[in-house]
Amino acid sequence: MASSLQAVPITSHKHDPAWKHVQMFKDGEKVQLKCIYCGKLFKGGGIHRIKEHLAGQKGNASTCLRTPADVRMLMQKSLDGAVAKKRRKLKNGEEVTTATNPLSGGIQTPYSDQDGLSTGVQLIANPVVVEPCSSLIVDHDRGDSFIRNVERKKRGRPSKGSLALAKATAELVPAANGFDSVVQKTSYVHVAIAQFIYDAGVPLDSVNSIYFRPMLDAIASQGITGFAPPSYHDLRGCLLKSLLDGVRAQADHYERTWARTGCSVLVEEWSTDKGKVLVNFLASCPEGAMFLKSVDITTMIHSPDAIFEMLKEVVEEVGVTNVLQVVTANEDRYAIAGRKLCEVYPTMYWAPCAASSIHLMLQDFGEIEWIKAAIDQSKAITRFVYNHSAVLNMVRRYTYGMDLVVPCATRSATNFSSLKRMVELRHNLLALISSQEWVDSLYSKMEGGLVMLDYTSDDSFWSSCSMIVRLMDPLLQILRLVRSEKRRAMGYLYAGIYRAKETLKKELGKRESYLDYWNVIDHRWEENRHVPLLAAGFHLNPKFFYVIEGDLPGDIGSGMFDCIERLVPDTKVQDKISKELNSYKNAVGDFGRNMAIRARDALLPAEWWSTYGGGCPNLSRLAIRIFSQRCSLMHCKRDLIPFEQLHDSKNSLEHQWLKDLVFTQYNLRLRQLSQRSEEPDNVDPISFDVSESVEEWIMSSDLGSSDWMALDPPSSDAVLLKPSRDDIEELGDGRFDDYEIFGGAKDEEENI
Alpha-carbon distance 208 to 213, whole Å? Predict the structure, then answer.
């Protein structure tokens, strides 16, 4: 792509579904669009041409061969809907939606200026039933109410069945008087969706799926008439086959990149409700993660030899030359099997899950007496808040919609993340308990309210909480990095552990004090510390390498050399890499350019090597392969995927159907992880969807009559006023010159 092109963000007002599958660039005043699947650049033709490209419709654009099947189907439906709409417009002429005034029952509306001036919105009576619309919103901040947006009515006469359903669903919405009835009813479309979700038992967070909105767009593109929903047999047959083909095409694309980046085999063990122990195998690379298969290991769970044979089989299926590491749980049986695997295949590594190690550190720190006391006091506050709707409403008003509890993957991470949130909202809570609204409230006199007052007005409580946040925040930063789907943590993990220990030393001061905390980290990090990939990642990351003064600590250099010998079997190439390391060390050639120096902090390590490593091709290839690996398991949601049914099936046809269904479902969820924003889902902390990790923060001993309908919903767009720095930026602050943190060898020599 030409260097003059500048990326341009796609604004929210672009509603065509094709905008989600392109990138926009500007070349001067000209706008160009790029397909995110094949990379083809379009210099004209607009979004319609891109849509034809994605749909595979011949005419104005070439066909994209990499478009997923579900996307291709959506684009084709959108094109068909646009054609049908144009034909109806030519036949019937332009129509305008009718909106009647519920106050007067006629066409005279409150949207006309009282002085007789027209607002520009003409409302025409129509005998057909008007669908209440959520886009009719009254802006109370202006002197007169007005319509922000009036949707055009779908053309065509609805069928009798559609009218009956519309009437039945509309009756579910309580009636109201005046214009507010339109706002309260919102849309019986929403009610119909909710009715389906509740009846089918679909998890409520399914609306956060990246596939939810495209589904609605595809349905809407068909209009009211002429759309037949898929049948049961369609879902079991042709539609599953279509999506399966798309998922396999995506998997083939991933596999083609393994030659350059390599991949990590992820081994995720879990237990079903019926007590089966299953293992899901995934292959992960920068393009995305791919679910390979599920294996029932219930009968061999305690046999390292059986586990080794299972790992060996999967590695051979993926390709020995493609696999750089196998990541498993931090358990002895996997460690034994993993080491044996590395003996059989000396060109790869076994690594324990880094995220699990961090979670265990947080769990151990949470058991320290003074830390546990502060967490328990914080839980006492939140348990009272989250069990009384009036109190929770007040808290959310004073915190501008921010919740006190932050749901995370584990209880230990939830503990420290929620404690940090409470420290950030300290002044908001103090403003609440000192307000007249709180003083006059009955809840301020209740036992829980008095406890809340005692703790939130206690400086020693906040002092302890602030100290805990300062001590544990570096570990939370590492946790966010290793769980990120947008950038690989391999080049940052070693530095992250260094910063965590550096913070403990700085905050606690006395050696005997911080060494106790270091021991917790060292105990849980022991297995990870011996993974040479982490040391090599630190060595090859220009952000950290060039700020080190003097010689590198011995284990970093040894880890680098170990990776060269293990990952590059050809001795001639090993020798070339050894020479190229000196060029990197001395910033020779392109490494020393001002652009490369500035980019040390701006680019991710793999991007930096891809851009400036051309003069050292062998070292650059190795660096890119190392930085392309994951440090932890993924733990994608498995609910409502029929794993148990797959392993219990006794019919060969049904077994293969379930196998393809599981393969399709799990890979669609993995694709969603890679495309989703780094921001957490908008999930209410009191929801049962996250109850396991937040239970101790919201549970109540008295499940009496609490009115959930009086609860204001949490804000979906609330943000902290305090700006947060990027985790990677904070890792780069300061130098790496404390040899006691690296291992103490240099420190001991100086003391002799």
Answer: 9
Q: How far are the Cα atoms of 232, 233, 642 from residue 664, in angstroms, in the given order?
A: 17, 17, 11
Number of H helices and number of E strands within the chain?
A: 33, 9
d(CA 373, CA 10): 48
Residues 6+ apart with CB under 8 A from 441: 390, 391, 394, 449
**What's the burial of 572, exposed, middle or buried (CB within 10 Å: 0-12/13-18/19+)?**
exposed
Range with lowest mean pLDDT among 80-89, 393-402, 493-502, 554-563:
80-89
DSSP designation for 714 = P
How do 349-352 and 323-328 pair as beta strands?
A: parallel
Tell me the C-alpha to C-alpha distance, in Å, between residue 216 and each of 190, 220, 291, 591, 672: 11, 6, 27, 50, 17
The answer to whether the beta carbons of residues 665 and 244 sit under 8 Å apart is no
pLDDT band for 540, please (50, 70, 90 cuts): very high
When pLDDT is cut at 50, 70 and 90, the band that residue 703 belongs to is low
Helix 447-456 and helix 426-433: axis angle, to 10°?
130
Alpha helix (H) ranges present in 483-593? 493-508, 511-529, 532-540, 542-545, 554-567, 571-585
Give the single-character DSSP code of 446.
S
Taking residue 45's Cβ as centre, other Cβ atoms within 10 Å add up to 14
- What confidence score (pLDDT) does residue 218 get? 84
Q: Whole-angstrom Cα distance, residue 482 to residue 287?
A: 16
Compute the residue count for the chain: 752
pTM for the predicted model, two decimal places: 0.73
Q: How many Cβ atoms sit within 10 Å of the Cβ of residue 195?
A: 15
Q: Judge whether residue 105 has pLDDT over 50.
A: no
Backbone angles phi, psi at 71, to 5 degrees: -70, -40
> Does residue 14 come out as left (phi exceeding 0), alpha (psi in the -120 to 50 range) or beta?
beta
> Taking the CB of residue 615, how many other CB atoms lie within 10 A of it?
14
Q: What is the CA radius of gyration of the chain?
A: 30
Q: What is the DSSP letter of 304?
A: H
- Strands across the sheet with 323-328, in order? 288-296, 277-285, 263-271, 323-328, 349-352
Question: Shortest CA distance to 328 belongs to which of 313, 307, 344?
Answer: 307
Residue 506 CB-half CA count within 13 A: 13
Output the six-digit token pair for 128. Answer: 């057909």
HEC secondary structure over 146-192: CCCCCCCCCCCCCCHHHHHHHHHHHCCCCCCCCCHHHHHHCCHHHHH
Q: Which residue do the tokens 């290839």 mark?
A: 621
**Tokens describing residue 562:** 């170990």
Contact 530, 576 (CB under 8 A): no
From 20, 49, 22, 19, select the one nearest 34 (Cα to Cα).
Answer: 22
Q: Are strands 263-271 and 41-42 parallel, antiparallel or unpaired?
A: unpaired
Give dist(CA 318, CA 353) in Å, integer: 20
